[in-house]
UniProtKB/TrEMBL annotation, chain A:
Keywords: ATP-binding, Nucleotide-binding, Transport. InterPro entries: AAA+_ATPase, ABC_transporter-like_ATP-bd, ABC_transporter-like_CS, ABC_transpr_LolD-like, MacB-like_ATP-bd, P-loop_NTPase. SMART domains: AAA. The keyword Electron transport does not apply. This is ABC transporter ATP-binding protein.
Automatic annotation (TrEMBL), chain B:
GO terms for cellular component: plasma membrane. It is found in: Cell membrane. It is a multi-pass membrane protein. It comes from the Bacteria. This is ABC transporter integral membrane protein. Residues 269-389, 720-836 form the ABC3 transporter permease C-terminal domain. It holds the Pfam family MacB_PCD. Residues 17-233, 490-679 form the MacB-like periplasmic core domain. Belongs to the ABC-4 integral membrane protein family.
Length: 256, 844
C-alpha cells in the first residue's frame, strides 16, 4: 500500500499537513511529538488516524484542526494556511470551517439538545439552514429528544447530538478525537455509522483519531502513526486487517 | 488529620485568597475600631487628668439667670473667702460663654459651636495656671484679649494686632495681648478660645462681680477633701463643689461613654461586614469539599470517621481564619493610626497619646476571625462527612448535590412571611413600639430572603434573560443560564450584596423621604428671604434685631424668640415671641380662627392642637405666669395650624420682654424689598456690623441647614457600609473564579468550536453582572419595603409626610451593582479566556 491516489476517488484535498513538526521543550528535555509529517485528507473521505499511545496521533489532529500550534511546517484547511493565523482568526476558522466531536464534554449542560446542535451557528450569528438541520436530526434519529438537556440523555445519545452539531454547520472538515472512546460497543457502532453515512451520503469529510480497530474499520482509509511519523496507511480497512497490522507493528516495534 | 488540613490549605492558596481577604477586612474593621477607641479614650483620659492635675477643688454654679432674687453665681467676696481658707494656695474665678474671632477677611475662625470666650484670671503672681503663654501676656485691660495659638495662627495675628471679636452682641475690636496654649476642651474640639479681662468677661457672660466656676489649688501637703469640706459652707445654694480628682474621673467616664457608643456603632457595621463574609467563606469551602470528594471518600475508605472528616475541614477553616485574623489585626492597627491622622486632617483635634494595644483587641480579632471562618465552614464540613467511601471507586465525577430545595423553600417562605408580617404590623402600629416590631421583622425577613434566594434566582434571572440575549447574543444566553446553574452558590453570592443593599436602600428611602418632607416644610413655611442666627446656635442679642429692623431695604423682620409661660396653671408651654404684623410676612401662619392681627394688641395666638386640647377659642382669657413668676391674664386672639417653625403659642415680643432681662432670640427672619439679592444680603451683614459670629442664610442655605444634616448622615452610613459591599464584591470574584475553574472543559469546548476569547470574557462578565444585579434587586426591594415601614412609624411626627422612593439613587445602586459585576469578573474572565483548550477538553 502506497500513498498513490486511487483512480476514481475525489482528488480535492480538504486539509493538508506538509513537513509538520511539533517539538516540546528544548535541549536535553526536547520531545519531538510530530516529526515532519506530510499527510492529506481528501474531500468526502473518512480517515482514521491510528497509532499507539504517544505516537502523536492526537497532536497531529489538534494541529491540523487549529486547536494547537506547531513548530514548523505548514497546515492548510482548504485554501487557508494555519501557520500565519492569530488566535482570533483561528477561532473564526474553527467556527466556520471545522466541526468537532470530542471523547467527552461535547455538550453544554445548560442547553437543550437542539440548542447544542445549533450552537456553532449561534456563535457565528448565522441562521441555521433549517432543512439541513432537520435532515441531520432525522439521520441521527433524535427528533423526539431535542428539548432534553444533556443530563437527560444517555452517553450514546449525547455523542449523537455531538455528531449532529458537527454536521449541522456543514463544515469543510470534521475532526473526531476518540469520539466513541466512552461508549459501549452498540452506541459506538451507531455513532460511527452516522459518521460514515455523512461521508457517503452528504459528502462530508471526516478525520478521526482512534485506537480501536473496530472503529477504524468504518473509515475509508487508516493512517498509522508511530513516534511522530506516519509509518503506513491502509485503504478500505476491516477490523481484522487493522488488528493484524497493529499486531505486526507491535511485534516490529518490540524487535527493533 | 491536622497535617492533611495544613496541606490542603497550602495546596489551595489561590482559591482561599478571597476567603482570607474577606475575613481580614472584617477583622481589620473590628480590631481597628477597638484599638482606635482604646487609644482615643486613653488620650482623652490623660488630657482630662492633666487639666485637673493642679485642681484641688472645683466649684460650679448652676444659678438660674432668669431669677432676679437669686445670686447669679459665685461672688467675688466668696472667691476671696475661699482663697483665704487653710491649705488653699489660690482660687481662680471663671466665667465663660460664646466668643467668635474674625480672621482678617471677616470670616469666623474655628468650628462654630465650640468657639468659646472666658476670662483671664491671674493669681498673685500675675499668671493663670490654665493658660501657658507662648507670646505676650494675659489681657489686663478692657480693650485687650488673648487667643489660643491655633486660632491666632489661622488668623495670622501677632501680638499687638487689632482683633475683631464677636460675642452675641455687636462686634468689638481688641488688641491682642498674648497667645497661649491650653488643655481646654473647646480648643481641643477645634474651636477657638478668647480670653478677656475678668471684668469684661463678667459683664458679657454673667454679671459684674460674679463667677460661674471657681478652681481651687492646694498648698503643698494640703488635703483636697479637707479643702472641699471647708469650701462647701461658703457657697451659695445654687453652687456645687467637687474635688479635682472626682471631676477628672467623672469626665473620664463621660468620655468613655461617648466613645462607647461610637465603638458600638462601628462594631455594628463591622458585624455586618463579617456577616456578609460568611457567605463567601461558606461558598469557598463548599467548592473545596466538592472538588475533594474522591480524596475524602478515600480517607473514609481507609478508615477515617465522619467526625474526623468534619474536623479536618474545620481545622482547615481555623487555620485560614487564624492567618487572616493576624493579618487583619495588623491592618486594623494601621487603620486606627490612619483614622487618627485622618481626623486631625479634618480639624478634629485629638490629644496626643501613645497607640494603645491592649490584649482585648488581639483576642477579639483572633476569636472573631477564627470563629466566623469555622462557623461558615461548618455546613460544608458536615456535607463532607456525608460523602460515602464508595465515592472513591466511582469513575464518574460525583454530581453536585442536587438535593431538593423543597424543605429549604418552605422554611424560607415561612420565615420571610413571619418577617414581612412583623414589618407590616410594625408599620401599622407606628411609634417606637412599631419600630420594635419592624426591627424584629426585618431580621426575620432578611434571613428568610437569604434562605429563599436560590428559589428567587431562577424567575428573577429568567426575567432579565431577554436583555442578555438581545444585545449580547450567545455569550449573553450562556451567561444567563450559567448564573442559575448552581442556585445555592448564586444565592449565597447574591445574598452578600443583597444584605448591603437592603441597608443602603432602606437608609436612602428613609433619609430622602424625611429630607424631602423637611425641605417641603421649610419651603412651605418660610416666606422670609433671610434667616439670621448665631454661628454657635446660641441666642442673638437684642441689638441684632434692632439693627436689622433699621437696615436698608428690609420690609419685614420678626424674631423667633423662645419663652416659657405657665398657661392656665398648667405645665410650662413653649412660646414664640414674634413681631406682630411682620410675622405673617416672614413665616407662614395658617389662621384657623380669629385674627392674627390681635397679636399687636397684646393677645396670644394658639396652635390648633393645643387650643383643641385646652378648649380655647378666640376671645377666651387665659391665666398666665411669666418667667419672672409674675402672674397675669392673656386673651386668645387667634388659632393657627400647628407648624414646625412656631411654638404652640405666639405672642408679641413686647409682652415677653417686659418679664425677661435677656430675651432668647433663636433666629431672626428678614424679608427684603427686592427679594433675595447679593446687595440685600450685604446690606444685612453690614447692618449687623459685619459680625463673624452671626450667619445670614438665604433660602437655599436655610434648606441646606435643615435638610443637610440628613445628607451628611446618609453619606457617613454609605461610607460605613462600604466595607460590607467590598466583601460582597470579593464574594462575586470568588464565585466566578470557582465557576470558571469548574467549567474548564465546557469553556475549552466552546473555544474549540469557535467562541472567541472576547466572547468568553463577555460570558463570564455578564454572569457576574447578572448575579450582582440580582442581589442588588433583592436588596433594593427589601430595603425599600423596610424604608416604607419605618417611615410610616415616623409619619405622624413629620407633617406632610409622603413616601419618596429615590429612583435616582436606586438607579445609581443598580448601575453600581452592574459595575461591581464587571469589576469582579476582570480576573476570572481573563483566566477563562486564557484557558488552554487542549488541557481543558482532555479526558482524565
Amino acid at each position: 500500500m502506497t500513498t498513490a491516489s486511487i483512480a476514481g476517488r475525489a482528488t480535492a484535498v480538504a486539509a493538508r499537513a506538509t513537513d509538520l513538526s511539533k517539538i516540546y521543550g528544548q535541549g536535553e528535555t526536547q520531545v519531538v511529538a510530530l516529526d515532519r509529517v506530510t499527510v492529506e485528507f481528501r474531500q468526502a473521505e473518512f480517515t482514521a488516524i491510528m497509532g499507539p499511545s504517544g505516537s502523536g496521533k492526537s497532536t497531529l489532529m489538534h494541529c491540523v484542526a487549529g486547536l494547537d500550534t506547531f513548530s514548523s511546517g505548514s497546515v492548510r484547511i482548504g485554501d487557508t494556511e494555519l501557520g500565519s493565523l492569530k488566535d482570533k482568526q483561528l477561532t473564526k476558522l474553527r467556527r466556520d470551517k471545522i466541526g468537532f466531536i470530542f471523547q467527552a464534554f461535547n455538550l453544554l449542560p445548560t442547553l437543550t439538545a437542539l440548542e447544542n446542535i445549533t450552537l456553532p451557528m449561534d456563535i457565528a450569528g448565522r441562521k441555521p439552514d433549517k432543512q439541513w438541520v432537520d435532515s441531520v436530526i432525522r439521520m441521527i434519529g433524535l427528533a423526539d429528544r431535542l428539548g432534553h438537556r444533556p443530563a437527560q440523555l444517555s452517553g450514546g445519545q449525547q455523542q449523537r447530538v455531538a455528531v449532529a452539531r458537527a454536521l449541522a454547520s456543514r463544515p469543510e472538515i470534521i475532526f473526531g478525537d476518540e469520539p466513541t472512546g466512552n461508549l459501549d460497543s452498540r452506541s459506538g457502532a451507531e455513532v460511527l455509522g452516522f459518521l460514515r453515512n455523512s461521508v457517503r451520503e452528504m459528502g462530508q469529510t471526516v478525520v478521526m483519531v482512534t485506537h480501536d480497530p473496530v472503529a477504524a474499520a468504518y473509515a475509508d482509509r487508516v493512517v498509522f502513526l508511530a513516534d511522530g511519523r506516519i509509518v503506513d496507511e491502509m485503504f478500505q480497512p476491516t477490523a481484522d486487517s487493522v488488528l493484524d497490522f497493529m499486531k505486526q507493528f507491535d511485534a516490529k516495534g518490540r524487535t527493533s | 488529620m491536622f497535617r492533611t488540613a495544613l496541606r490542603n490549605v497550602l495546596a489551595h492558596k489561590a482559591r482561599l485568597l478571597m476567603t482570607v481577604l474577606a475575613v481580614m477586612l472584617g477583622v481589620a474593621f473590628v480590631s481597628g475600631t477597638l484599638v482606635f477607641a482604646d487609644t482615643l479614650s486613653n488620650a482623652f483620659r490623660n488630657q482630662s487628668a492633666k487639666s485637673y492635675d493642679d485642681v484641688a477643688v472645683a466649684v460650679t454654679s448652676y444659678a438660674d439667670s432668669e431669677d432676679p432674687k437669686a445670686e447669679p453665681g459665685v461672688s467675688r467676696k466668696t472667691l476671696d473667702e475661699i482663697a483665704a481658707l487653710d491649705g488653699v494656695a489660690a482660687a481662680y474665678g471663671r466665667v465663660a460663654g460664646f466668643a467668635g474671632v474674625a480672621d482678617p477677611g471677616g470670616k469666623l475662625i474655628g468650628v462654630g459651636w465650640s468657639n468659646k470666650g472666658s476670662n483671664f484670671a491671674p493669681g498673685k503672681d500675675g499668671k493663670d495656671p490654665a493658660y501657658a503663654f507662648t507670646k505676650g501676656s494675659g489681657p489686663v485691660r478692657d480693650d485687650q484679649v488673648a487667643l489660643d495659638v491655633d486660632s491666632a495662627a489661622k488668623g495670622e495675628y501677632q501680638v499687638g494686632d487689632r482683633v475683631r471679636v464677636a460675642t452675641n452682641g455687636p462686634v468689638k475690636e481688641y488688641t491682642l495681648s498674648g497667645v497661649f496654649t491650653t488643655e481646654d476642651g473647646a480648643v481641643n474640639a477645634g474651636g477657638s478660645l478668647v480670653l478677656f479681662d475678668t471684668a469684661v468677661a463678667q459683664k458679657q457672660y454673667l454679671a459684674p462681680g460674679y463667677f460661674q466656676d471657681v478652681t481651687v489649688t492646694a498648698a503643698p501637703g494640703a488635703s483636697d477633701t479637707k479643702i472641699l469640706d471647708a469650701v462647701k459652707p461658703l457657697l451659695p445654694e445654687s453652687a456645687e463643689a467637687e474635688t479635682g480628682q472626682a471631676l477628672a474621673d467623672k469626665q473620664a467616664k463621660q468620655i468613655e461613654e461617648g466613645l462607647g457608643s461610637l465603638k458600638q456603632v462601628l462594631l455594628g457595621f463591622a458585624g455586618i461586614a463579617l456577616f456578609v463574609g460568611i457567605f463567601l467563606i461558606s461558598n469557598t469551602f463548599t467548592m473545596l469539599v466538592a472538588q475533594r470528594t474522591k480524596e475524602i471518600a478515600l480517607m473514609r475508605a481507609v478508615g477515617a470517621s465522619r467526625r474526623q472528616v468534619t474536623r479536618s475541614v474545620l481545622a482547615e477553616a481555623a487555620l485560614v481564619g487564624l492567618v487572616a485574623s493576624l493579618v487583619g489585626f495588623a491592618l486594623g492597627v494601621a487603620l486606627a493610626v490612619g483614622l487618627r491622622s485622618g481626623m486631625a486632617a479634618f480639624d478634629m483635634k485629638i490629644p496626643d497619646g501613645p497607640l494603645i494595644l491592649s490584649a482585648t483587641p488581639v483576642v477579639a480579632a483572633v476569636a472573631v476571625g477564627v470563629l466566623i471562618t469555622m462557623f461558615a465552614a461548618w455546613l460544608p464540613g458536615r456535607r463532607a462527612a456525608k460523602i460515602p467511601p464508595v465515592a472513591a471507586m466511582n469513575s464518574v465525577h460525583a454530581a453536585a448535590t442536587t438535593k431538593s430545595l423543597v424543605l429549604r423553600n418552605s422554611v424560607g417562605s415561612a420565615v420571610t412571611a413571619l418577617g414581612a408580617a412583623g414589618i407590616v404590623l410594625g408599620a401599622s402600629t407606628g411609634g417606637s413600639g412599631g419600630r420594635m416590631y419592624i426591627g424584629a421583622g426585618a431580621f426575620f425577613a432578611l434571613i428568610g430572603v437569604i434562605i429563599l434566594i436560590p428559589l428567587l434566582s431562577r424567575p428573577v434571572i429568567a426575567l432579565v434573560r431577554p436583555l442578555l440575549v438581545g444585545p449580547f447574543g450567545v455569550a449573553g444566553k450562556l451567561a444567563g443560564q450559567n448564573a442559575v446553574r448552581n442556585p445555592r452558590r448564586t444565592g449565597a453570592t447574591a445574598s452578600a450584596l443583597a444584605i448591603g443593599l437592603t441597608l443602603v436602600t432602606g437608609l436612602s428611602v428613609l433619609g430622602v423621604t424625611v429630607g424631602t418632607a423637611i425641605d417641603k416644610m421649610t419651603t412651605d413655611n418660610i416666606k422670609a428671604d433671610y434667616m439670621v442666627s448665631m454661628a454657635n446656635g446660641g441666642d442673638l442679642d437684642q441689638s441684632a434685631l434692632r439693627a436689622l429692623e433699621k437696615a436698608d431695604g428690609v420690609s419685614a423682620v420678626s424674631p423667633q424668640q423662645n419663652a416659657y409661660f405657665q398657661l392656665a396653671g398648667d405645665d410650662f408651654v413653649s412660646v414664640s415671641a414674634v413681631t406682630p404684623g411682620d410675622i405673617t410676612k416672614v413665616l407662614n401662619v395658617d389662621v384657623v380662627a380669629g385674627d392674627i392681627a390681635a397679636l399687636a394688641k397684646g393677645q396670644i395666638a394658639v396652635a390648633e392642637k393645643t387650643a383643641k386640647k385646652k378648649g380655647w377659642k378666640p376671645g377666651d382669657s387665659v391665666a398666665v405666669t411669666f418667667s419672672d413668676k409674675k402672674k397675669g391674664a392673656l386673651k386668645v386672639g387667634a388659632v393657627y395650624q400647628n407648624s414646625e417653625f412656631l411654638s404652640p403659642v405666639l405672642v408679641d415680643t413686647k409682652v415677653v420682654n417686659a418679664h425677661e432681662a435677656k430675651p432668647s432670640i433663636q433666629q431672626i427672619f428678614v424679608k427684603t424689598d427686592g427679594g433675595q439679592s447679593a446687595a440685600g444680603e450685604k446690606a444685612l451683614i453690614n447692618a449687623l456690623g459685619d459680625n463673624p459670629a452671626m450667619t445670614v442664610m438665604d433660602r437655599q442655605d436655610i434648606r441646606n441647614e435643615f435638610g443637610g444634616a440628613i445628607n451628611t448622615l446618609l453619606n457617613i452610613m454609605y461610607g460605613l457600609l462600604a466595607m460590607a459591599l467590598i466583601i460582597a464584591v470579593l464574594g462575586v470574584v470568588n464565585t466566578l473564579a470557582m465557576s470558571v475553574f469548574e467549567r474548564q472543559q465546557e469553556i475549552g469546548m466552546l473555544r474549540a468550536i469557535g467562541l472567541d476569547r472576547r466572547r468568553v470574557k463577555r460570558m463570564v462578565r455578564l454572569e457576574a453582572v447578572v448575579i450582582s444585579v440580582f442581589g442588588a434587586l433583592v436588596g433594593i426591594g427589601l430595603g425599600a419595603f423596610l424604608g416604607w415601614a419605618i417611615g410610616k412609624t415616623l409619619a405622624d411626627q413629620i407633617p406632610g409626610y409622603t413616601l419618596v422612593l429615590p429612583w435616582d439613587r436606586i438607579g445609581i445602586f443598580l448601575v453600581l451593582a452592574g459595575l461591581v459585576g464587571v469589576l469582579a469578573a476582570l480576573w476570572p474572565a481573563r483566566n477563562a479566556a486564557r484557558l488552554n483548550m487542549l488541557n481543558a477538553i482532555k479526558t482524565e
